Amino acid sequence: MPDCLTKEERDRKLVQIAHSYTDLTEADIQILLDVSHALPSIGNLESGDTYINILTRNGESMVAAQYRHPDCDLYKRDVIGEVEKKEDEPAVYRALEHGIPGRGLIGIIDNRKIVVRHTVSPIFNVQQKVIGSLTYEYLNSGADTEPIRIVNKEGKAAFFDSKINQLISNLQEGFLICDEAGICTFANARAEELYQKAGHPESLIGRRYEELDLTGRYSQEEIMAGGTWKQEVQTDRYVLEENISAIRENGVYQGILVILRDKTKIRQMEDEIAYRAALIHEVHHRVKNNLQTIISLVGLEAAQKKDAEVKAFAKTITGYIRSMSMTYDLLAHTGAEAVDLKTMLAQIIDCVLESWSVRGCRIRVDITGDDLELPEHVASTVALIVNELVTNSIKYAFCDREEGSIFLTIEKGEEYSWVTVRDDGCGIDEKSGDRSGKGLGLKLVDSLVKSSLKGTLTIECGEGTAVRFSVFH
Q: Mean pLDDT throughout 362-374?
């Protein structure tokens, strides 16, 4: 038979049991009363019985509140005040003793006469101490995988068809339900906690939706029209995500569901990531400036020297440093963590052409191939290598020529990519491995490729020279 107790009778019984068998404070008892007022709403959602249990001074689980659904009514009687054994209701004891929820678990009730499935959630007070447990219960199907769904003959809200157990047991999300008149009829403990963080210290039960709307953006009329809304609510200390949707039964508006999530920690992590990104950007900018300072100092010192070899050495060194500086310049300007290789190579070419020139010879440079982004440490090494190869081509490949061409090609692979620097100049001395006859340039390149890029280097001589090296990324 349906639950015949009035709200006042349920309240009176709960208060009497709490005073007689527990040491709960008046504030704790009030929380239990608030939850008990939601028992009919929870039971009606999926046609099950709902209970509140408390732990007595003797460590026993006692039923303090009950709602008997007319289509379920497992006990067929009022069980308020009865003690449940631990072997029959282990999930209830886990919730009461350890604050651990359980979903879709098997229990044996009424002196081992009825096998049921139930979902149990601990009830916490403001100090996060367990003061009771909330149980939603329905008959077991006999299978371990899927419980029987006792369908209300008059229908039920489609949204809760598959969500009610999850919502009740997941205390990380707060949820509340307003009826068709916009009055809050149920709010779990997490919802109360999150609303307090948003500046609503009062109890949620019985309040109108307009009072509970954290932003005032959506009226009840807009929600009734249909749709789902997601919005963020920010206070001085917290960031909450609020999801609002209409509850409908057979297309008829039945109320409002509000789900709250605390996103404060996520936002704090996002802010930390943004701070670190800004810090890295500043480091890149300062490194670039320091390298530019070194270039200026080397240039000033070289200008005071008359020795041609010293001047040439200073020019080579500043070329290396300038290539590295370009990597950090790109990172500082884009704010990215990787460097676009084509953009970097174009800047290196401009710099090398400005620093080194062959009198009477026009040099054309062409960059083609795949788009490729490289991390900072890899890009700076590639910059040094390309600087050396292009410098060698400009200095030695086009003697006694009126024009010459240098071709840079990028081939992108899954683990390795390849960069080829080719010119149509006079070729190199295959024995020494260098046009200058000293062999130092390509030895430096080979060392950088193998040690820093974990790649390989090949040289092809013929009508010009092609140097191809791989980059592991």
A: 93
d(CA 251, CA 159): 12
Q: How confident is the model at residue 362 (pLDDT cuts 50, 70, 90)?
A: confident
Q: Is residue 443 part of a domain?
A: yes
**Is residue 468 included in any domain, yes or no?**
yes
Q: State the Cα–Cα distance between residues 459 and 472, nearest whole angstrom.
A: 19
Cα–Cα–Cα angle for 129, 85, 1, rounded to 5 degrees: 95
Backbone phi and psi for residue 330, each to the nearest 5 degrees, phi listed first: -65, -45
User: Which of 158, 188, 204 is the last residue before a domain boundary?
Assistant: 158
Q: Give the count of domains, the chain.
A: 3
How far lies 92's CA from each of 40, 87, 120, in Å? 20, 10, 6
Question: Distance between CA 347 and CA 445 in Å, rounded?
Answer: 19
For 163: left if phi > 0, alpha if psi spans -120 to 50, otherwise beta; the answer is: alpha
Closest by alpha carbon to 124, among 104, 100, 108? 100
Indicate if 277 and 344 belong to the same structural domain: yes
Q: How far, CA to CA in Å, does 407 sit from each of 349, 363, 427?
A: 11, 11, 14
How far is it, in rounded angstroms, from Cα 217 to Cα 183? 18
Q: pLDDT for 75-109, tens place per residue? A: 678 889 999 888 777 888 888 988 888 776 655 55
Q: How far is CA 264 from CA 123, 171, 194, 242, in A?
A: 23, 16, 11, 13
Residue 37 near residue 92, CB atoms below 8 Å? no
Same domain as 433, residue 300 = yes
The count of residues in the chain is: 473
Whether residue 42 is contained in a domain is answered as yes
320 SS3 class? helix
Q: What is the CATH number of the domain that holds 77?
A: 3.30.450.280
Instruction: Tell me, yes or no, whether 394 and 412 share the same domain.
Output: yes
Domain hosting 383: range is: 267-472
Structural tokens at position 8: 């006042």
- Model pTM? 0.41
Residue 440: helix, strand or coil by DSSP?
helix
C-alpha closest to that of 177 among 240, 251, 260: 260
Question: What is the predicted pLDDT for the residue at 144?
Answer: 37
Specify if 458 maps to a domain.
yes
Strands (E), 114-172: 114-124, 130-139
